[in-house]
Amino acid sequence: MDASSTIPSTRSTAPRRGRVRPGRRIADRSLRVACASATFVGALVLGSILVMLIVEGVRGFTPALFANPTPGPGSEGGGIANAILGSLVLTGIGIVIATPVGVMAGTFLAEYGRGSKLAALIRFLNDILLSAPSILIGLFVYTLMVRPMGTYSGWAGGVALAIIAVPVIVRTTEDMLRLVPGTLREAGAALGAPPSKVIMSVTWRAASAGIVTGIILALARIAGETAPLLFTALNNNSWFSPDLMGGVANLPVMIYQFALSPYPNWQGLAWAGALLITGSILALSIVARFVIKPQTAR
Amino acid sequence: MSALTETIALGRPRAAAARRGPSRNLDTLFRAGAYGAALLVLIVLAGILGSILYGGWPAFREFGFGFLTSSAWNVGTEQYGALVAVIGTVASAFLALLIGVPVSLGIAIFLTQLCPGWARRPVAMTIELLAAVPSIIYGMWGLFVFAPLFARFVQIPVSNVVEGLPIVGTLFYARVPSGVGVLTAGIILAIMIVPFIASIARDMLEQIPTVLRESAYGIGCTTWEVVRHVLVPQAAVSIIGAIMLGLGRALGETMAVTFVVGNANRLSASIFDPSSTIASRIANEFNEADGLQLNALMALGCILFVITFVVLIIARLLTRRVKAA
Fold first, then answer.
1. What is the pLDDT of residues B66-104, one digit of tens each?
2. How far apart are CA A24 and CA B184, in angstroms?
3. Is the separation of the CB atoms in B127 and B199 below 8 Å?
4. Chain A hits for B127, Cβ within 8 Å
5. Which residues of chain A, if any, have pLDDT below 70?
6. Shortest CB distance from A35 goes to which of B13, B109, B320?
7. Segments in chain A forming alpha helices (H)
8. Which residues of A touch B35 (CB under 8 A)?
9. Which of residues 218-257 of A touch B (CB under 8 A)?
């Protein structure tokens, strides 16, 4: 429908004596109030979540939290140091795998694949993968790695997180590369640089802030992922070991298991972990916003 | 874009082909790497489908079509059916849309039409941060903060009022008002999908030319009339796409739902009663499952795959069509 066809219908409800009819005014007021309250509710929920995390979690923020591994069921003391370290390693593996794959795939879509059918298909499937249920990715990696290897492992967890991160990076990389003006590429080609050289030294460089933002966003996305880790890295109460075979402690699964446990000590640790992980992710998201801001003023 | 860029983008330019060894090899290698990485996306998606089909096949073979229509889930007798989980998944996602869509559109309209300029950025950021909060935190918030309040101020009073009444008495009666259940899951899911739908809807509303809006205001329309007769018709298709995208997320959401849905395998007509969704059942039972139970869980995964991917494909087609126009 275009605007011209809407004009007669609004005219028919227009006031006759120069004053806004009460019905129209009430409809308008209610819309304004409803929209404002919807936004208020959204902000309220975020506020409520943050207050809950701080009230419940701040108590647990002691030096011991960062120095000790998770305690056994029902025992006192302990910390979440192993889970923090494990989470860092798992997200690290995820991002290290996902960054080259994602950036290269995004580069293919933006630089080599313009107008090709295959690229269109991959772009479409990537968008779908972007919102695919993460639990299915967990099942996939379980079948792919955990089953054949016969044990839960940190590697499987890292791969699962990588699969979740890749579509995010592909999408932002492609979007950012498309913003780079074609004249820059032409200038590079005119100097005799082969396409790969043009991409690496000209387009990537021009889009670097945007690509980094994509990687940070992917990091924020996978740092809190729980479902795929349940079937891949699982959890572990012992100290982190550099051998990643067997269960690897990580914050999300630790929070899941401890929060639903009947032991107050475990619950306290879960809250502290929840505060830590949410704080880090929100900080990452805010940082990402400020990295991207100077480049895409839209 | 000019023809020169097209050559760089699509073909191997002659100039590069004429160059000496190393640089040309690097070029081919780089191109192959990019190609391979892109293909990997395809392979992963095929792998996801393949792996859960492979894992779920024994269950489908054992129960046949009855797997879809049976509400049994009995580890002892090895009888498994998907009905309860499928209904729970669809019901919670539907409730999430019912609650989440009006709220998301309200936020989008507020941000684009009503919000004073200085508040726009901070408010938009607050809503977007809601999308960054991990799903497990929503689960904890839902279980420890929201569910007790919900039980006390909604479930118990409503149950008392509707008890014994026909239809509403079954639909809104909580046998055990613990605060968890399908409706609670729906509300938490609604909160989780609101930022996604709101941010896409906001982008779509912003893309509508200002002239259209201003001319409507110019002939004396109220904000409501501008929204109803100008903005909504313009952005309708892409907003429906955004809603489908939110639906896709709601269907597959796992951790938050696992906390608040109650994880009961019971077919109940009341939206206050605990139930299960496909994702919550997989998350709950997978680690302790083996044999046929594992296959049945994988088969549930297949059903989830089919449902979400159909929804997501429709969503992407709808949002894409508008972008191209």
1. 888 888 888 878 888 888 899 999 999 999 999 999 999
2. 36
3. yes
4. 39, 42-43
5. 1-20, 239-242, 292-298
6. B109
7. 3-12, 22-57, 63-67, 81-107, 117-130, 134-141, 147-149, 154-179, 182-190, 195-198, 204-206, 208-223, 227-230, 251-259, 264-292
8. 108, 112
9. 220, 223-227, 230-231, 234, 252, 255-256
Instruction: Report CA-CA distances (Å) from B36 to A108, A129, A186, B121.
Output: 9, 17, 25, 40
Q: Return the CA Rg of chain B.
A: 25
- Residue pairs spanning A and B at CB distance below 8 A: 319
From the list B26, B102, B113, the residue facing A196 with the nearest CB is B26
Taking each continuous run of H as one helix and of E as one strand, the counts in chain B are 17, 2
- Please tell me the distance from the alpha carbon of residue A110 to that of residue A178, in angstroms, as a whole number: 6
Report chain B residues whose CB lies below 8 A from the CB of A133: 251-254, 279, 304-305, 308
Q: Side-chain half-sphere of A125: how many Cα atoms within 13 Å?
A: 20
Indicate the residue of A43, A129, A195 with minimum beta-carbon distance to B41. A129
Chain B residues lying within 8 Å of A1, measured CB to CB: 233-234
Residue from the list A3, A115, A226 with its beta carbon closest to the beta carbon of B230: A3
| Side-chain half-sphere exposure of A80, counting CA atoms within 13 A | 30
- The β-bridge partners of A236 are none
Structure tokens at B264: 């009961």
Residue of B48, B52, B223 best to disrupt the A interface, most CBs of A under 10 A: B48
Give pLDDT tens digits for A40-78.
Answer: 999 999 999 999 999 988 888 888 888 888 888 877 888
Domains of chain A: 63-296 (1.10.3720.10)
Nearest alpha carbon to residue A158 among A232, A231, A238, A217 = A232
- Reported as a pLDDT band with limits 50, 70 and 90, residue B142 is very high
B274-298 in b/e form (b: 16+ CB < 10 A) is bbbbbbbbbbbbbeebeebbbbbbb
Q: How far is A76 from chain B (nearest CA, A)?
A: 22
Task: Give buried/exposed letters for B119-133 (b at 16+ CB in 10 A, else e).
Answer: eeeebbebbbbbbbb
Lowest-pLDDT range of A32-41, A99-108, B6-15, B158-167: B6-15
By C-alpha distance, the chain A residue nearest B236 is A1
As a dihedral over the C-alpha atoms of residue B279, residue B285, residue B289, residue B294, rounded to 10 degrees, the angle is -20
Cβ–Cβ gap B136/A224 under 8 Å: yes
Chain B contact for A134, CB < 8 A? yes
ipTM: 0.84
User: Is residue B20 scored above 70 in pLDDT?
Assistant: no
What's the pLDDT at B6? 47
